[in-house]
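cron nightly-structures :: item 1 of 1
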Amino acid sequence: MASILKVDDLRGNTSAGDITITSEGGSATMQLQQGLIKAWINLDGTGTIATLDSLNIASVTDDGSGAYINAFTNSFNNVNYGWNMSTMNNSSTNKGFIAGLRVSTTPTASQLQTSIHQNETGSADRDFVCTSAFGDLA
């Protein structure tokens, strides 16, 4: 019979925020906090941009064609966090190979500015722009 554990708060034994998880095979471990996404957003980047859903995003700003500034609700500990971004478009008039997704300016602990560049046509707004960030929160 499977066990069900229902809790509202998890704390490490040695340190409250230090919980180690053992891998499925049992040979590797990782810190639970290190493996969690700390911020993410799914937005409609066309026309007047709109947040479809998010976590730890205080606001998003349209910074021009294909460019967005995501301000974090809770800042990262430093600028050395990881991030990734994906995008797609449902419009039949704006499909095409995307040459690059990039950080437009040097990231700060409190915000990440990203942009989308489409092959041969320059920057491009997209229907779905998903960005996530990993790292230690301040």
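cron nightly-structures :: done
The mean pLDDT is 83.
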